[in-house]
Every structure is written in structure tokens, then in C-alpha cells.
Amino acid sequence: MKEEFIKHETYMRRCLQLAEFGRLHAAPNPMVGSVVVSGGTIIGEGWHRRCGEAHAEVNAVNSVKNTELLKQSTLYVNLEPCAHIGRTPACSTMIIQKKIPRVVIGCTDTFSKVNGKGIEMLQNAGIEVIVGVLESESRILNRRFFTFHEKQRPYIILKWAQTADGFIDYERSPETLVGPNWITDDYARTLVHKWRAEESAILVGTNTVEKDNPKLNVRDWSGKNPLRVVLDRTGRLSRDLSVFDLTQQTLVFTENESYSIPNLSFETIEFGRNVIKNIVTVLYNRGLQSVIVEGGAIVLQQFIDSGFWDEARVFTGLSRFVSGVKAPLLTNRPIKESFIGNALLSIYENRA
Q1: Catalytic residue positions?
Q2: How far is CA 143 from CA 227, 235, 261, in A?
Q3: Which of 168-177, 233-242, 309-318 has the lowest mean pLDDT?
Q4: Is the dihedral of CA 317, 337, 21, 196 positive or negative?
Q5: pLDDT value of position 256
């Protein structure tokens, strides 16, 4: 039995590897990989390449050259096969039609239209179903998807760079030239652009926009630009700033105005005690599964204090500012640390 479970884990790890190929294009669908195994050999592989296209199980089955082998095969997939007809037919129905006798699943799909229905369909058709192989790894891979559907909010990543003495920026006056004070090097900046390409939205506050005039796009990596989310409570930001160019979608939270033009929309919310909750609710209602919050210090600390965060990625550089804007305060211990160029990258999780 132990040897069989190890074998299941081996094939499930391959599913997880394949699923990763859909990271930039599968959303809002989950990342899913699938393999078909017959006689101890993988005879078919597939992954969900893009939202609206065939699911991983279909691609895996379609890659099998000798379809007669399907009747004596095991299909592995890191997420429960769907049971409903959406943009594509139900995968559970396809598996039944192909007479595949056994299905091994990483984790249940808690999306309301699935949530055990796919497993039930397969079992009712007489198919042997094994669930929970590398379950934790399968859920971690699609943590954005699960957070969105289970907590009714986006998966929230906090990101900042701080100096060795704990500052995120110098104190800058309105007369100070606009532009960032770099704490990290090109290696970290390239990684940040990779992260941006992987998330639905990127959020910053008014002070960050005024001081740095950031573009908030993906320039040093291949991928689509996230939705820019800007907090501008009083509407004081100049429309000449980069976040207001119409080459990329931007959403502005404000108390003063609400209108939309192509690639630029304004959302009126209350900026009181529940401002973070209000922001998160709007992002969820707009179908955004993830957001990376890049500052500034006040906004980041508001997310931390409100408890609305899942992961923090903090770069600590070698430079010292001696004085300035203090970095946000986290009481958690990092779960992982590594050097990226000249900076230490610490990863934190909110397990509350």
C-alpha cells in the first residue's frame, strides 16, 4: 500500500509541474495538470493552457496515441474534475465516456459549481476515485483560486523593500524630485516584474504615486500588465502621472467622483475605519483573484493591521538611510529566506 501511495505521489508531482505552465494564462480558472498512466508508463499529459480552452484532463486524454489503453489506465489530476458545463464541457463526463477505470485527485475543487460533484459523478459511474494525494501541495498551487472562492476576497500579497536599518524611504518634501529611491538591484526588480505578471492587480497609495510616479506595469518580464489600483481619497493626484495613461487599465478608489472611460474607472468608497475591507470587497466583486500591494508604508500597514493579507515578500537591502519613513511592522517570523542579488528576500505568511 505504501509503495502504491508513493507511486501516486510521483505522478501527482508531474501533474503539479504541468499545471505551472498555465500560471500566466489560466486565470481566473485554476492551474491544473493531468497525466494518464497505463502499465506504469505515462501515455498522456496535458495542462489547462488558457481560460476558455480545453481543461487539463481533456488535453491529457487527447494526447494518448493508443486510445484502447484508456480502458485500463489511471488518470491523475491535481484538482477535482469539473462536473458542470461552462466554457467547455464537463471533464467528469468525458472521463466516464472514455471508460477510464480509476482517477487519482490531488484535492477537491471547492468552487460551488463543483465541490464534490465531479467526484460523485465518477463514483456513481463505477470509477475508482482516490482523493487527497499531495493535497496540501495541490491547494497551495491554487491558493489564489481557493482564497477567492472560500473567503470571498482576492489573495493579497504585500511587497516592499527596506534598508538594513529598517526604512522604506527617505522623508521627501513636495519639492523633492519625483522618482524612486532604489534599495534593491536589477535582480530584485526583474523578480518583482515577474510577480506582477502573475497577479490580477497591483495596488498603491497616493503618496507612492506622487513621490515615485510609478508605471506599475510589466517591463522586465514577459506577461500581461495587472490592473493598476490607486488610492486617491481626495482626488489630488495629477492626471499627468503615469498611472493615468490609458495604455493600461487603472481603477481609482476615491471619495469624490465615480465615472469610467476606456481603461480608467473611479470607484467611490468610504475611507473610514473599514477602508481596507471596502477595497477588498470591491476587488472581489470585480472578479479579481489576487492583488499585490506595493506601498507605501501607510497603506501596507493598514493591510497588516486589518488582517487582510495572505503573504508578505520583503526585500532587505544593504544600504542605510539613518532616518526616513519606517518600514511596515510585521510580528510574524519569515517562513523562507533567500538572497536575490544584493538583498535578502524574506517570505511571510498570515496564518491567522
Answers
A1: 57
A2: 20, 34, 33
A3: 168-177
A4: negative
A5: 85
